[in-house]
Structure formats: structure tokens, C-alpha cells
Specification:
The complex is a heterodimer of chains A (221) and B (461). Chain A is built from 8 helices and 13 strands. Chain A is an alpha/beta fold and 221 residues long. Chain A folds into 2 domains: 119 residues, Response regulator (Rossmann fold, 3-Layer(aba) Sandwich), CATH 3.40.50.2300; 70 residues, Arc Repressor Mutant, subunit A (Orthogonal Bundle). Chain B has 8 helices and 15 strands. In chain B, a hairpin with a 2-residue loop joins strand 6 and strand 7. The chains are: A alpha/beta (221), B alpha+beta (461).
């Protein structure tokens, strides 16, 4: 995904950008509203992350103008204040969601996905591998013409494998991507989810192969 | 802190006792006055009769052939003795020499009297007597002769009359005392009533209600009420200041915490060694705990502030729960937990939507946190008597029974929550919000299945 991060605290902005890059996202960083507007006029973003207190104005004014421009790019507001009244205010102004600093990146990702699912309005974003058709946004998986229902963690796991078929993912990496850090899980928990996913796709031409000592990869049989 | 007042005396008791004292003194005074007056009247009437009797005897005194003669008229003595069995004595003397009657009657020369009648109270033959002595000068050839007539009567009847009057006067005094005592008690009660009214209006207040007392009070109590109002204003100011301080502090902590958390996540992605990873995870958990605590302190400060100025609107609890749920759904999905809402259309409630939403999301947050991976959190909106009840059911370990009472206290966490991130203000916030709306919070464990249930009771509007 391509993010525009509008945040004036340089340290925080750098960390967030770096952290999102680790998950394979592209991040542009604007420290002020004017810079953010320049970015928006030259590029398309999947998501805007907006701080409320900015040096050259209030994030809420930016939101107002943004919606006035008929720009459909979803906006998630980053607030330091957790007051519900503030949050309700930004939602009324047209933000799609908000998240309180400091935030868990899995939560941010979950919120991004929820927002994008709402916004996509049925437009499919499906990827194919073998006879699997997977739409990570809509959360649907089809084997041929048969729809399989997956729970969230299974979807997320499949999404990771789908992002790079035939590439080996270590258990550690999978745990990092799949669980938030305040969930107390061991790496063996991954085995449970891999086993469930294997069961779901057992009738397809795709399988998850265990690479001893290294991890798992998604491959065609 | 002691909640008992240091009591020294009671205004009502003191006032009652003083009024009773005054009533007793007045009753005694009344008794004495009646008795004195009655005695005076009795004596006067007896004296008048004695005088008349003495005068009529004196009138019959005459000089006949140089000798003083007294022909005592029957009426003179009968007017004295016709009613009672009092005994009557008389004596006639001329120029100090005994003529007739009871010679040993006491002399009345020393007694004071009116004109030439002198009265004396004395004893004679073992009885108390009242005696009058009247003197008249008669002319004789050899010069004037002074004739003195003394008439005495025993005091038995007078005493009897006085006794009767005294009994009646005592009844009168006692009756007066009782009437005055009743009025006194009523007066004392009505005098302290404004104090009780004020005490009631202050004690009926909610815990956050620090408005000035507006109820009308008598002038004498104005200084107390003014002092009370000033004190509450000071208290409110210092509360507001500390809440603002907490809010500001929490706010300032959050941004650096966000940097720290993000950096820790990045580091975690880069390190391989299990002990380093464990340390970093510990760090992230600690950061989450601090930020949750900061968040809940902020929420709590906001709740405390808003309960003073409730923005009351008609609220559809079902819609509100749905909105709150939607907002938390991504969080639950992340952990493969399902949030479900059940309920029918219900009477609306009056309340502050932002407060209720805040309380509910705190509870839901807890429920999501404590529910085991892959299990569900259920929210129901129902109707119970005059209450609209919103319940959150989880499938977590439930509350320890001994904790249920004290869990809503600030910073109290259940025994079952030791390894989950949280600061323990969620239930406090929820309880304060329901109380501010005239409702209450109920904690219980689910029957039949594992899990806890938190119910918000709001009065229907």
C-alpha cells in the first residue's frame, strides 16, 4: 500500500515510515499541511495517516478541504488525545477512522483493511495462484468456483503467503506479522494456523510446504 | 478519614430544654401569683367581715349612767359564723380595762391597720386566728372613754378555701407547662428544620455534584451556606486543575511512547536471538500498559468533567452500541474474536452519548482483551422493569467472586488479570458513567458457561 503520513513529530514520523516499509508498504512523509497538499496533487495514495496538531494548521481543517476536493482517499486520524469527543469530531469531519498514539501496527493494519474494504464497494482486488482466487480486501477465497470461508487470522496468513508465492517465510516472521505484540503467543501457534489453512486448501492445486528449519512456503503441487 | 461528625450538643435539644425551663418558671410564677392573689382576696374579705362585725359591736356601745354598756347585736357574730364551723371570739375593753368576752385574746396594738381598725394574725387556744381591734371614743361626764372591741375568727375556712384554690392553681400551672412544653418542642423542631433541609439537599447529591447550594435558607444560615459554597467552589477548582493536569500529562506521554513503541517493533523485526526478542516484547507490553493507563486516565478525567455538565439527549442504546461495536470490530477481528449485538427496539434513555460510548468501549476493550483467542464477545440490549440494560458477555476467566465488590474501585484489577495489559480504570469509568445517569453497574459471572458479564442499567426516559 502507498501511505501518505502527515505528522510533524520528526522522530515519530521516521519510525512509523520505517515500520510500515518493513511490511512492504511505501510511505511518503509530510510534516505540514502544505507539503501534504503538494504530495496529494502529484500522486495517488491508498491511505492518508493524519495527525491533528500540525505546525501550519489543524488536521481537521485539512480533512475538511480534503473532503471538499471530492478526493476519495481514505483518511485515518492519528490522535494523541484519546477523548471520545475528539474522535467523534474527526469522524464527523469525514475521517474514515482514528487510532490513538501509541498504536499497535497490527491494529493500524487491521483498521486500514477495514476502511479499504468499506471503501472498495465491491470492486474486486483478487489475486490468483494455481486454482486459488484470493481477495484479501473482501476476505474471500475461492477454489475454482467453490467459496471457502476463512477466519481473520487464516486470511492474514494466506495474504502473507500470497504476497510472495514460493518465498520461504520463517515462523518468527509469520508470528510478527500475524499477532500483535501484546498477545502472548509462542511460535508454535503458527503451526496451528498453517494446519487449519492446509485443511481449507487441501482440495486445491496449491499447498503449503514445510521447509525444515527455515519455515513455510506456498507452492503449486 | 472519619465520616462521623464531632458532635457537641444539639441545637434542638438545647432549644427544647431552654423552652421547657422557661415554661416551668412561668408555670411556677403563675401558681405563686394565683395563690398570693387568692390569699389576699380571702384575707381582705375576712377582714372586711371582721371589721363590719367589730364596728357593729362598737356602735352598740354606749354610756349609761356613767358606765360603759355594750349590747352585742346577734348579727354581729352571726355574719361571721353562718357558713363555716370557724370559731369566733370577741372582747370588749374600756380604757384598757376588760369588760366582756375572752379576756386573754392577744392585743392588737402593734398591728397596722386602716383608720382605727388594726388587724393581726395570731394564735389563740391552739388555733390560728385573724383578729381585728376597733376603737371608739365615748364621752362621759368624767371625760372621754376609749372603748376597744376585738373580734377574732379562726382561719380554718380560709385555709380550706386556699387549699382548694391551690389545688386548682397547681392544675392550671401544670396545664400551662404542658401546653408550653408542646409548643416549645414544635418551635425547636421548626427552628432546626432549615438545617435538616440543607443537610438533605447536600447529602442527596451525586458524588461529582459540586454546584453551589441554591435552595432558599433563613438569613441566619446564610454564612454557613456561603462558606459551604465557597468550599465547594475551591474543591471543584482543585479537582478541575488536577484533571487538566492528568489530561495534559497523559497527552504528553503518548507521543514519545508512540516513538518508543514503533522503534521497538522495528528492532523486533531485525533481531533473531530469542532472548533479545523476548526482551523487546516485554518492552512493547510495558509501553502498551503505560499508554493504556494514560488513555484511561484521560478517559477518566473526561468522564469526571462531563458528569458535571451532562449533555443530555435522547439516546437509542441499540444504535449507540452498534456504532461502538463497529469501531472496535477491526480490533476484535485481529484476534479472531467475533463481536455480536442482540437486542430489540427499546424505550430510549436520556443521557450523554459520548460518556456512554466511552464507558462501553472501555468495557468492550476489556472483554476483547480477556476473551481467549478465537472466542466471542456478545452484547445484548434488553429491558428490565424500568431499566434499559446493556450487557457485555465475554468468554474469559470471569470475575473472582471475592473481587466483584471492589473491582469498580480505581486501579483495582482482578486476580485473574495479572498477565493482561491494563490499568484497571475501565470498570471505574463505567460505574461513574452509569451513576451519573441515575443507573448502576452490575458485575456477575455467567451461569452455565464460562465468562464474565458486565451490565449497565440505565433508567428509561
Amino acid at each position: 500500500m502507498r501511505f501518505l503520513l502527515v505528522e510533524d513529530n520528526a522522530k515519530l514520523a521516521t519510525s512509523i515510515a520505517e515500520r510500515l516499509t518493513l511490511d512492504g508498504h511505501v510511505v511518503d512523509h509530510a510534516a505540514e499541511i502544505s507539503t501534504a497538499e503538494d504530495f496529494i496533487s502529484t500522486a495517488d495514495y491508498d491511505m492518508i495517516l493524519l495527525d491533528i496538531m500540525l505546525p501550519d494548521g489543524d488536521g481537521r481543517d485539512f480533512l475538511n478541504e480534503h473532503r471538499g476536493r471530492q478526493d476519495d482517499t481514505p483518511v485515518i486520524v492519528l490522535t494523541a488525545r484519546s477523548e471520545v469527543s475528539d474522535r467523534v469530531g474527526v469522524l464527523d469531519l469525514g475521517a474514515d477512522d482514528y487510532i490513538t498514539k501509541p498504536f499497535d501496527f497490527s491494529e493500524l493494519e487491521a483498521r486500514c483493511r477495514a476502511v479499504m474494504r468499506r471503501k472498495s464497494g465491491g470492486v474486486t482486488n483478487a489475486k490468483r495462484f494455481g486454482d486459488l482466487v484470493f481477495d484479501s480486501l473482501a476476505g474471500t477465497l475461492k477454489i475454482g468456483s467453490k467459496t471457502v470461508s476463512l477466519r481473520n487470522k487464516e486470511l492474514r496468513l494466506l495474504e502473507i503467503f500470497f504476497s510472495a508465492p514460493d518465498v520461504i517465510f520463517s515462523k518468527t516472521k509469520l508470528v510478527d506479522r500475524l499477532f500483535s505484540y501484546d498477545e502472548d503467543v509462542s511460535e508454535n501457534a503458527i503451526e496451528v494456523y498453517v494446519a487449519r489453512l492446509r485443511r481449507h486448501i487441501s482440495s486445491s492445486s496449491v499447498q503449503i510446504i514445510t521447509v525444515r528449519g527455515l519455515g513455510y512456503r506456498l507452492s503449486l503441487t | 478519614m472519619t465520616l462521623e461528625a464531632n458532635i457537641s450538643g444539639s441545637i434542638r435539644r438545647r432549644l427544647t430544654l431552654q423552652l421547657l425551663g422557661i415554661a416551668a418558671v412561668l408555670a411556677a410564677l403563675l401558681f405563686v401569683m394565683v395563690m398570693t392573689y387568692a390569699k389576699q382576696v380571702a384575707e381582705e374579705s375576712q377582714d372586711n367581715i371582721l371589721s363590719a362585725s367589730a364596728t357593729s359591736i362598737l356602735d352598740s356601745a354606749a354610756i349609761q349612767s356613767g358606765e360603759v354598756t355594750v349590747d352585742i347585736p346577734y348579727s354581729a357574730l352571726s355574719m361571721l359564723g353562718n357558713v363555716s364551723d370557724d370559731r369566733v371570739f370577741y372582747r370588749v375593753m374600756a380604757d384598757g380595762k376588760y369588760l366582756t368576752g375572752y379576756e386573754s385574746l392577744p392585743d392588737a396594738y402593734t398591728a397596722k391597720g386602716r383608720e382605727n381598725h388594726r388587724f393581726i394574725t395570731s394564735h389563740y387556744l391552739g388555733e390560728s386566728i385573724r383578729m381585728v381591734s376597733a376603737t371608739r371614743r365615748l364621752s362621759n361626764a368624767s371625760g372621754p372613754v376609749e372603748v376597744t372591741v376585738s373580734v377574732a375568727q379562726t382561719l380554718k375556712r380560709q385555709r380550706e378555701t386556699l387549699e382548694r384554690i391551690s389545688t386548682n392553681a397547681a392544675y392550671l400551672g401544670f396545664g400551662f407547662f404542658i401546653a408550653a412544653a408542646v409548643l416549645g418542642v414544635l418551635t425547636a423542631q421548626s427552628a432546626v428544620r432549615p438545617v435538616q433541609t440543607l443537610a438533605n439537599s447536600v447529602s442527596r447529591r451525586g458524588p461529582q455534584d459540586l454546584r453551589a447550594v441554591q435552595a432558599p435558607v433563613p438569613g441566619e444560615m446564610a454564612p454557613l451556606v456561603v462558606a459551604l459554597n465557597r468550599f465547594m467552589a475551591r474543591l471543584k477548582k482543585s479537582l478541575t486543575r488536577s484533571e487538566e493536569f492528568i489530561a495534559e500529562a497523559a497527552h504528553r506521554i503518548r507521543t514519545p511512547l508512540a516513538v518508543l513503541r514503533t522503534q521497538a517493533e522495528i528492532a523486533l523485526r531485525r533481531v533473531e536471538r530469542p532472548e533479545n526478542r523476548a526482551a523487546l516484547k516485554e518492552m512493547i507490553r510495558a509501553i502498551d500498559e503505560s499508554s493504556r493507563a494514560a488513555g484511561q486516565l484521560l478517559d477518566h478525567a473526561m468522564v469526571s468533567f462531563r458528569t458535571d455538565h451532562l449533555e443530555v439527549k435522547e439516546i437509542n442504546l441499540l444504535e449507540l452500541a452498534d456504532e461502538t461495536l463497529e469501531r472496535l470490530r477491526p480490533l476484535a477481528e485481529m484476534q479472531d474474536k467475533t463481536l455480536s449485538l442482540h437486542g430489540e427496539e427499546l424505550p430510549s434513555i436520556k443521557g450523554d452519548a459520548i460518556l456512554i460510548q466511552n464507558a462501553l468501549s472501555n468495557i468492550l476493550d476489556n472483554a476483547i482483551k480477556y476473551a481467549p483467542q478465537g472466542e466471542d464477545v456478545k452484547i445484548t440490549v434488553t429491558h428490565e422493569d424500568k431499566w434499559v440494560v446493556l450487557s457485555v458477555y465475554d468468554q474469559g476467566p470471569g470475575f473472582a467472586p471475592e473481587d466483584i465488590e471492589k473491582l469498580t474501585e480505581r486501579f483495582s484489577r482482578g486476580k485473574n488479570a495479572e498477565d493482561t495489559v491494563g490499568s484497571g480504570l475501565g470498570l471505574t469509568i463505567a460505574e461513574e458513567v452509569t451513576q451519573a445517569h441515575g443507573g448502576h453497574l452490575k458485575l456477575s459471572n455467567r451461569t452455565n458457561v464460562r465468562g464474565a458479564c458486565v451490565s449497565f442499567y440505565f433508567p428509561q426516559s
